[in-house]
Amino acid sequence: MDRRSYDFADVSQYQESASPDLFPDDRHQAEKLVEHLAFDATVWGLTAVLQYAQFSDFVWKRPAGDDERLNVFDHRRGLAGPDFAEFRVPNVDTLYSNGWISVEQGPVELEVPAVGDSYYTVNLFDAHGNASNISNRTHGGGPVTMVLCTSEQAAEARGTGKDVMVVATPVVWALLRVQVTATGGTGEADAMRKRFRIRTPHPQASLQRYTEVDSSLVESRWTEFATALTAVIGLCGVPAREEVMVARYRAIGIGAGPGEVSPSGCDWVPDVAQRGFDSAMDMIRASRSQLGEPLGSGWTRVRDKGRHGTNFLARAVMNNVGLGANVVEENTSFNTYVSSNGVPLDGSNGAYCLVMDTAPPVDYFWSVTLYLADSGRVYGNPWDRYSVGSASGLTPDGSGRVRIRIDPGAAERDPNPGVLPAPRSPFFLVLRTYGPTEELLEGRWSPGPVDTLEHCEETGR
């Protein structure tokens, strides 16, 4: 019999200890343990910390009244551009609206208006980046009212007779996207997103229960990271199957109660933990090109967005590259950092071309966006063209192919909708397909390789 796990509640040999686990007296051995635990906690907790940093800024730094801190959408942002700093690798196809929903006091209603054929999605993330969607794909063009609740509140919520979504954590990030079309522009999309509502009959929880953190430091300073992760655990808890693993982090102060004595009180622990933290962050950053399934052409097909399970490293890498990734059924995406011969994309080496034998098969639209390799930010070019795609007028040529020129020499606006300005420095590309068809989801379609423009001209592509 293949017995991979068992429940301690069903056996006689297991008993809880009344004592804390050992912590080495030997300084050298103790430092090894602290460094290891900090490394492990960073991989496990990075997504939660990055999201909590966003939550902290939303609650404490956003100009709003105290009654507008939670359970409300913030619609202030226009299309993402070079100055967009909330998270890395944003799309430039939709208007984003941020909302943080608290069901701590009871169920909350999310109202989706009638939007017709316009594309929208409300991405709902638990504290650890696990995602679900309310969108054209799942609920059509609306209107729909969805009741959000925890499992403990589900019976109450189902008594309303409305659609119910049971969320994993009592605080949920709601990321609303509404497409900006060439005909309607940002004005039409902005008016539409403002008709989405979050409603609750319950009083707002006291804001003082939410620890404020410095979002600019959580990726570089262990102490700020640890503060944020402890706040997440206290606010949202830990998945049951991960509780034993996370309990080990109390030795370095993660999740320890205010009166709990732990070795983290030693004055040398933060400096040693910083080493483990730095090592983990280096590994996470170095692994970003492994996010997907290599296609043999330089492109990778991004896998399991918003669906991480216990793949903690993949979760950390994905959310370090960019928070708020849509599930693959909503948006299947492809990344490339290299040309077809494996050389990193770099505008100082000249122009490139991307030729797709057919346009991506989608129900809604698709786009290719260029980002700076060192920061994940949109490249700021003289004519503010950050992406090209079906919504910007790019269509197949007479042979059915789609041709894109990625050009660092495009200093003046080019009327060709297939020209994408590039920096004279390293960059990467993201192809997003909104409403991917079965052909895309099953891997039967993929983009062509990125080649140097010279190679494309020589080969007639």
Fold topology:
Blueprint: H1 27-60, E1 73-74, E2 94-102, E3 108-112, E4 120-125, E5 131-135, H2 136-139, E6 144-149, H3 154-158, E7 163-166, E8 171-179, H4 185-193, E9 197-199, H5 222-236, H6 243-247, H7 269-286, E10 292-294, E11 299-302, H8 312-321, E12 331-336, E13 352-356, E14 362-372, E15 387-389, E16 402-407, E17 419-421, E18 427-436, H9 438-441, E19 450-452, H10 453-459
Parallel strand pairs: 6-7, 16-17
Antiparallel strand pairs: 1-2, 2-8, 3-6, 3-9, 4-5, 4-8, 10-11, 11-12, 12-18, 13-16, 13-19, 14-15, 14-18
Describe the structure.
The protein has 461 residues and is an alpha+beta fold. The protein folds into three domains: 23-51 and 210-286, no CATH class; 70-203, Immunoglobulin-like; 291-459, Sandwich (Jelly Rolls), CATH 2.60.120. Helices cover 24% and strands 22% of the residues. The protein is built from ten helices and 19 strands. The protein has a six-stranded antiparallel β-sheet. Strands 1-2-8-4-5 form a five-stranded antiparallel β-sheet. Helix 1 (27-60) packs across helix 5 (222-236) and helix 1 (27-60) packs across helix 8 (312-321). It starts with 26 loop residues before the first helix and ends with a helix.
Search tags:
Immunoglobulin-like, 3 domains, Jelly Rolls, 19 strands, globular, alpha+beta, 461 residues
In short, what is this structure?
The protein has 10 helices and 19 strands. With 461 residues, it is an alpha+beta fold. Helices cover 24% and strands 22% of the residues.
Any idea of the CATH topology of the largest domain? Jelly Rolls
Query: Using only CA atoms, what is the Rg?
Result: 24 Å
pLDDT below 50 for ≥5 consecutive residues: which ranges?
none
Largest sheet: 6 strands, antiparallel
- Please give the count of helices: 10
End-to-end separation in angstroms reads 57 Å
Q: Residue share in helices?
A: 10-25%
Task: Give the DSSP E fraction (strand runs of 2 or more residues).
Answer: 15-25%
Structural class: alpha+beta
Adjacency order of strands in the biggest sheet:
10-11-12-18-14-15
Query: Which second-level CATH architecture of the largest domain applies?
Result: Sandwich
Rough shape? globular
Number of domains: 3
* Assigned CATH superfamily of the largest domain: Domain of unknown function DUF1214, C-terminal domain
Order of helices and strands: HEEEEEHEHEEHEHHHEEHEEEEEEEHEH
Strand tally is 19
> How would you state the average pLDDT, rounded?
91
